[in-house]
Design goal:
With 434 residues, the chain is of the alpha+beta class. The chain contains 10 helices and 19 strands.
């Protein structure tokens, strides 16, 4: 099978990544500490940007997470986390004509990550959708009060720009991913370059493993990292997450697997450190997130607190990062389309609130860490399945069957063609052949 060569275009679509997931989830966890609760809750809410209203369309709900015994919460969570590549108001380093020509205004939704937390909070699925994914995009509400045009086939990262402004653009990205997956997605957030750098600095940096040197002068600031363990913070973390030419095969798929190395390392560091129990540390993260992220109006303080409680409950082995199943677009070598067989399995598992398991490998920009300090994680096995590709088929919505207190839903093992990793797997980023 020929190697997918999509996305080898001029560097004009940088990435902001995992900070939306963890930064958003921990944004208000500090309110559980009495010593800073009152000040934190007021200050974080006061500094946040005005929220985004995601249109109430038929079949879509935004139910708050109900309270459960012992201070915990129950409830399934579907949240879309969007990274925009806009250069507007991003500082002098992006003010040159080339950057301004590349993306301004709402920008493109170059990062699209779906966070699915199971109703019983026994599993988390983090699904990354390639920006170059060609799929149908629905008509979306616009800032002028009208509606955008629909497309039977267009790049996913054009959805953000169809709303006419940041708020309606985020809603359009949600509607597009809902149509693709068959899910209700009541929660959403977006972040810019500056936001990613600020949240990274508040977290204190993330240590990642590099199997090879990572060099990329197409990002700002340029990357020139030696192999080994590297701690990335602020603008350097942003460049690492943006990099295409320095990792994998130079495509957006390689960049996704590089981001998964970062996200899994971040998850391990946060769960093994005192960050999630340090109210002052969390306040710093919360403030950075509130000032630099655009949130849907469904993401109030109580909901965010419920989400972070759910994240804390799930073990690293049950936190799975997966790339949405795709194959090369037969009409364009630089684009991808859904792998119908594998995508239907993933969509159905998410709709049915079932955990997912991987039988494939990491993506092109990652490899398992074989150093003595790394802990191996057994891989699941599955019978090989067809990997036909094609256009996105409509996916029916499924009725959720898992109830609080019930036995865990059976896991769905995805075909070997689907790449990803668990948070427990220690992996290293690497440069590919391109």
């Amino acid at each position: 099978m020929a190697q997918i060569q999509h996305g080898r275009l001029r560097e004009g679509h940088p990435v902001a990544s995992a900070f939306r997931f963890v930064g958003l989830a921990v944004a208000v966890a500090l309110v559980s500490s009495a010593c800073v609760a009152a000040y934190a809750a007021h200050d974080v809410v006061a500094t946040a940007a005005p929220p985004v209203h995601i249109p109430d369309l038929p079949g879509r709900t935004a139910e708050p997470l109900p309270e459960a015994p012992a201070g915990q919460t129950v409830g399934e969570v579907n949240m879309l986390l969007v990274g925009t590549d806009t250069r507007s108001k991003q500082g002098a380093e992006y003010s040159d004509s080339a950057n301004q020509s590349a993306s301004t205004g709402s920008g493109n939704n170059d990062v699209n990550i779906l966070l699915h937390i199971s109703k019983n909070h026994d599993s988390i699925s983090v699904v990354s959708f390639p920006r170059d994914l060609e799929i149908p995009i629905p008509s979306c509400p616009t800032g002028s009060g009208g509606s955008s045009y629909s497309s039977s086939k267009a790049m996913l990262n054009t959805a953000l720009g169809r709303g006419g402004d940041d708020r309606n653009g985020l809603a359009c990205a949600v509607l597009t991913v809902e149509q693709l997956t068959g899910l209700d997605i009541p929660y959403a957030a977006s972040v810019t370059f500056d936001g990613t750098s600020a949240i990274s600095s508040a977290i204190g940096g993330v240590t990642v493993c590099l199997a090879t040197p990572i060099v990329d002068y197409n990002v700002t600031p340029p990357l020139d990292l030696k192999a080994g363990q590297q701690t990335l913070v602020g603008p350097d973390a942003l460049s690492f997450l943006r990099s295409r030419h320095g990792v994998g095969d130079g495509s957006d798929l390689g960049r996704i697997s590089n981001q998964q190395v970062f996200m899994s390392s971040l998850a391990r560091e946060l769960t093994s450190s005192t960050t999630l129990t340090n109210p002052f540390k969390l306040y710093s993260i919360a403030s950075a997130a509130a000032k630099n992220m655009l949130l849907s109006d469904t993401l109030n303080v109580k909901t965010l607190l419920g989400i972070v409680q759910a994240v804390q409950k799930v073990g690293l082995d049950n936190m799975v990062f997966v790339q949405y199943p795709v194959g090369q677009d037969p009409d364009d070598i630089n684009r991808v389309v859904p792998n119908v067989y594998a995508a239907e399995q993933l969509n159905t598992a998410l709709q049915s609130d079932q955990p997912i398991r991987l039988s494939g490998t990491t993506g092109d920009a990652a490899e398992v860490d074989t150093s003595p300090s790394a802990t191996s994680t057994p891989k699941a096995t599955a019978t090989p399945a067809p990997t036909a590709t094609g256009g996105a088929a409509p996916t029916p919505r499924a009725t959720k069957s898992t109830r609080p207190g019930s036995a865990p839903a059976p896991a769905v093992t995805l075909p070997p063609s689907v790449s990803g990793q668990t948070a427990a797997q220690k992996t290293c980023s690497k440069k590919g052949q391109h």
